[in-house]
Specification:
heterodimer; A: 566 residues; alpha/beta; 7-stranded mixed beta sheet; 5-stranded parallel beta sheet; 26 strands; B: alpha/beta; Rossmann fold; Dimethylsulfoxide Reductase, domain 2; 8-stranded mixed beta sheet
């Protein structure tokens, strides 16, 4: 394979503590190396910033509900239209781009990995078919387990070992990466049209509470030693006053310690925190509680979070939180799609318009930014839009702009119809912090890589690490907010596995994407295998033998093998 | 000697039963026994044994007869036809695998095809309605485990989806439905007393063409509004009674079929059926599911959607962007308006199902059909390329009517020398690339 030498760039790599030093980066055989031969292709990065490829920690980019969003919203294709490039496939869609466009857009922003945040196990073949058709970027998917019948029964009976054996089996069947929890208990309740709004509301029939589910799954996760922690979308998402539920859930992590060989320190990743940091008790006195939530996160070291920034766009919300989507459609009266999935989960889809002319949307925008700006440790707070729920991931450059420039934030505040009310309900106008490129690199590279247990090979530029590298045409001196947004959205170069895939914002190569999944070995467990057989015979609508994702769906697999038998 | 292959998926209807057991001869050549399938499904497997099966591509001669040609010749003819035509209708896809569709779409992107599937004359109106009002739905296993109110509207699974009632909707005992059939109230709304109506607890005979009015009355009744004495031939007392009973259920579901999608009102019928379902969610839990016909028509919609963002009638003739407009990019309209220059049919039989005007237009254009069987469409084609039967002689992914993907299996070898859809399409794509490179 070819050799490259990236010269004269400002390197930002939190995994080594490199804060914008001028440093050469050498690439050989798809890896970062100490040095290369004189025949290496020289890339001049003078005046530019060099970072590892970014890792998306939470986005809905592949699978059944994403695809419902695509096809039931033909209008979404009208908002944005790319003309096809010479070597690329046709692209389409704005808030829920097609698979081809998804891969290209991530690559154009310097991303090389994306985590599909919610894979209904029964639909895992669909998720993998879409991942297969998403070019360039590596991907993994988290099966949703927080309302799974097996899990609820095992945890209710305090059978962590059985639960672990079941989850090990499930990860293997679905080629999944870890444990995703969405509205624990609430989504099962939704199958009867109900919900669990606090962590102590009992789940109908199963007689277990969300708190017990979360604690049980943290224990299971650490029993198995998975690379990622439990990844939780909490109860009561999107409701005024929900920050108390958020704090209650975060407190469940207290006293737990991460047990794994990947260097992961957190036991809980709390996702799209913006939707969970609301004060007030109605939309009239709705206000930010980002300060209260982040104060807790800052001092509680075994938690990581991502922001879920509202980008002020027309978008398409989609979540396994079925009851929330029903609540949302009652609120905005836009078209509602719902799918309840037998024994496992549910999902809903509703379009949503985050208008700068609506007070609540402005406050939501502010909360997302406050979370990142209040974060003391950028290695534990990551930038997301919960794509496409708070906005499409293609808006990351704009979020980076807002985080790096107080001026850009002020401009946006001034552009709100109800600026005074937004300022009154938040602290955004008083924050003068401007994030540095080093902090951005921590929030988008080193941090997510550590959180996902991938820090050994990804998210940094240490020799030996995978040569996923983004070069941006900006540096610490770049003060013009618009230039920050433009540069972050169009990489000068993107290397994926040591190969140039994007040059000057144009996709030139499809690279070779990998599907990551976790194969964890547990002791033979006859009880669990019997339970699985029984549930498939009696309650599932597909046969056990047809549940597995065949290998051909993921031609290039990156299997993380683990042994939890000890 | 023989062997039994378990967990076989049936490639016939959208029910996509995956519990078939097929006994085949030791040399993988012959199907000996098909267990668990319905009569139609079993026949699909047994088809492979039919004498007189076409196993070599055929080309129409000036005198109207067919002459056997090689796969090379057939593929070359097809690729040339596609490259020459500025806009080709590429219709069908409902009876092949998602993997094959994906290759077909790549061809369409290269040559400027319009990719359309059977939804265009089937559940297309449902898809339009969903684009207008969404759809609250669930998987079929949810019905089995929870549903105590089941409403069949304008569909007749007793004939069209024979195992639907026993696997999912009427008879099975599930987790919360331990009494099975006895615990469920079954309603059937139709303009005829069908065989499905015979197993329903209550049959409601609607006057032909009055489905919209009746659904509208259901919505009104659900909200406690006033009704005239009779709507679509149904007395108002009956409507109040049925809706009241649906409201008191724990979990209700509506299954609907062609009786709603292709009678007066079309997408508006589905629109109001969905809106009724939405309304019912204020009182209890309610879902609605389209009874998709072909075993993988749903899959075609899925693949088109993740690749281009539209579920059917995807016009790629601009070569750099995808367009979709029902009535404009839909097959029947393209054909009747003479807007395509060639026709490429795969895994479907428009000749048997399209309006005569559309097929008359089609028959005047260069046409290639890829299908395991001789059918109405092959008879108006210039070239017929026979292929292995997907789900019997080769595997691949398919999507059930509730969008659950299930892998179909290969149970026997195809006749010697017969290629699969995937192989034929891959070779056409390669030849198209050669021709475009040379052009």
């Amino acid at each position: 394979m070819s050799e490259f030498l990236i010269k004269n760039g400002y390197v930002f790599d939190p995994s080594q503590g490199i804060k914008g030093d001028k440093k050469d980066i050498a690439i050989k055989d798809g890896k970062v190396v100490e040095n290369v031969s004189s025949g290496a292709t020289i890339i001049d990065a003078k005046g530019k910033s060099v970072m590892a490829g970014a890792l998306e920690v939470h986005a809905h980019v592949a699978g059944p509900k994403v695809n419902v969003g695509r096809w039931y919203r033909p209008e979404d294709k009208l908002f944005h239209s790319y003309k096809k490039g010479a070597s690329t496939r046709i692209e389409g869609g704005f808030s829920i781009p097609t698979t081809f466009k998804t891969g290209y857009e991530y690559a154009r922003m310097g991303y090389t990995f994306a985590m599909e945040a919610a894979m209904p196990p029964l639909y895992s073949r669909h998720v993998h078919e879409e991942i297969h058709d998403t070019p360039i970027i590596d991907e993994a998917a988290l099966p949703v387990i927080g309302n799974n019948w097996f899990m609820m029964e095992y945890i209710k009976n305090n059978e962590i070992e059985n639960n672990a054996a079941y989850i090990s089996w499930l990860l293997r069947q679905t080629k999944g990466y870890g444990i995703k929890i969405v509205n624990p208990g609430g989504t099962e309740a939704w199958a009867w049209g109900m919900n669990c709004l606090t962590i102590h509301d009992p789940v109908p029939y199963f007689d277990i509470t969300p708190a017990e589910i979360v604690t049980g799954l943290i224990n299971t996760n650490e029993y198995l030693g998975l690379p990622h922690s439990v990844h939780i979308h909490q109860n009561s998402l999107g409701l005024p006053g929900n920050y108390t539920v958020t704090l209650d859930t975060l407190k469940l992590a207290e006293g737990h310690t991460a047990k794994n060989k990947f260097g992961r320190k957190q036991v809980m990743h709390s996702t799209h925190l913006q939707f969970h940091s609301y004060g007030g008790d109605n939309w009239g006195n709705f206000e930010s509680k980002a300060r209260e939530v982040m104060d807790y996160v800052n001092k509680q070291k075994n938690i990581t979070v991502d922001t879920g920034n509202v980008t002020l766009d027309e978008t398409t919300t989609m979540t396994a939180d079925g009851p929330f989507e029903h609540h949302l459609t009652e609120l905005n009266h836009l078209k509602w799609a719902n799918v309840d999935v037998e024994l496992e989960t549910a999902a809903g889809v509703v379009p949503y318009i985050y208008s700068p002319d609506i007070k609540v949307c402005g406050i939501q925008w502010a909360i997302g930014l406050e979370l990142a700006l209040f974060a003391k440790d950028p290695m534990r707070c990551f930038i997301t839009t919960d794509h496409p729920n708070a906005g499409p991931f293609t808006r990351y450059p704009r979020i980076v702009k807002w985080l790096m420039s107080q001026k850009a934030r002020e401009e946006q505040i001034d552009a709100f119809k109800y600026s005074d009310k937004v300022v009154g309900a938040t602290e955004i106008a008083n924050i003068d912090r401007e994030l540095t490129l080093y902090e951005i690199a921590a929030m988008t590279r080193a941090g997510p890589a550590a959180c996902l247990g991938l820090a050994q090979n990804y998210g940094g530029l240490k020799p030996g690490m995978n040569a996923d590298i983004a070069i941006y045409d900006m540096n610490e001196e770049t003060k013009n907010p618009e230039q920050i947004e433009k540069a972050y959205g169009n990489v000068a170069y993107l290397f994926k596995d040591g190969k140039i895939c994007v040059r000057d914002g144009v996709v030139v190569d499809h690279g070779m994407k990998h599907t990551f999944w976790v194969d964890v070995k547990v002791k033979d467990n006859k009880q669990v295998m019997h339970d699985i057989r029984e549930k498939f015979l009696k309650y599932y609508s597909v046969n056990e033998g047809n549940y597995v994702v065949p290998d051909s769906y993921a031609p290039h697999q990156h299997v993380i093998a683990l042994d939890a038998t000890q | 000697m023989s062997k039994v292959i378990p967990d076989v998926t049936c490639p016939f209807c959208g029910t996509l039963c995956d519990d078939l057991e097929v006994t085949v001869s030791d040399d993988n050549k012959k199907i000996i026994l098909v267990k668990n399938a319905c009569a139609i499904g079993a026949e699909k497997f047994n088809h492979t044994k039919e004498p007189g099966r076409v196993i070599r591509p055929r080309m129409r001669q000036p005198d109207g007869t067919f002459k056997d040609i090689s796969y090379e010749e057939a593929i070359d003819f097809t690729a040339n036809m596609l490259v020459k035509s500025r806009k080709t209708l590429m219709y069908g896809w409902a009876s092949t695998s998602c993997q094959a569709m994906s290759i077909g779409h790549e061809i369409a992107e290269k040559v400027g095809g319009v990719v359309d599937n059977c939804a265009t004359v089937c559940h297309g109106s449902s898809l339009i309605a969903i684009q207008d009002v969404g759809i609250p739905s669930c998987t079929l296993g949810e019905i089995k485990n929870r549903a105590d109110r089941v409403l069949f509207w304008g569909c007749n699974p007793a004939h069209a989806h024979p195992r639907h009632m026993s696997r999912y909707s009427i008879f099975p005992r599930g987790f919360f439905t331990v009494k099975g059939h006895k615990g469920r109230k079954i309603y059937c709304v139709d303009c005829r007393h069908t065989d499905t109506a015979r197993v329903a607890d209550t049959f409601i005979q609607v006057k032909q063409g009055y489905d919209y009015e009746l659904l509208n009355a259901f919505r009104t009744a659900a909200r406690g509004g006033p009704l005239p004495d009779e709507i679509g031939g149904v007395p108002k007392e009956k409507i109040y009674e049925v809706v009241e009973d649906l409201k008191t259920g724990r979990f209700g579901v509506i299954f609907f079929g062609m009786g709603l999608t292709h009678t007066l009102g079309r997408n508006h019928n589905i629109d109001i059926a969905i809106s009724f379902t939405r309304d019912m969610n204020e009182f209890t839990k309610f879902s609605i599911i389209a009874m998709r016909g072909h075993w993988n028509v749903t899959g075609s919609g899925q693949v088109l959607s993740w690749q281009y963002g539209f579920p059917y009638a995807v016009d790629l003739s601009r070569l750099n962007k995808a367009r979709y407009q029902t009535g404009e990019t839909t097959s029947v309209d393209l054909l009747t308006r003479n807007e395509v220059e060639a026709c490429f049919y795969i895994a479907s039989d428009p000749g048997a199902h399209f309006p005569i005007e559309a097929m008359r237009s089609s028959s005047k254009k260069p046409t290639v059909t890829i299908d395991p069987h001789i059918n109405c469409t092959t008879e108006i084609s210039d070239v017929h390329i026979p292929v292995a039967m997907v789900g019997v002689e080769t595997g691949g992914c398919a999507y059930r009517m509730d969008n659950v993907p299930i892998e179909t299996r290969k149970v026997v070898d195809p006749p010697d020398g017969l290629l699969t859809d995937e192989e034929v399409l891959t070779r056409i794509l390669a030849r198209v690339n050669e021709l475009l490179g040379a052009a």
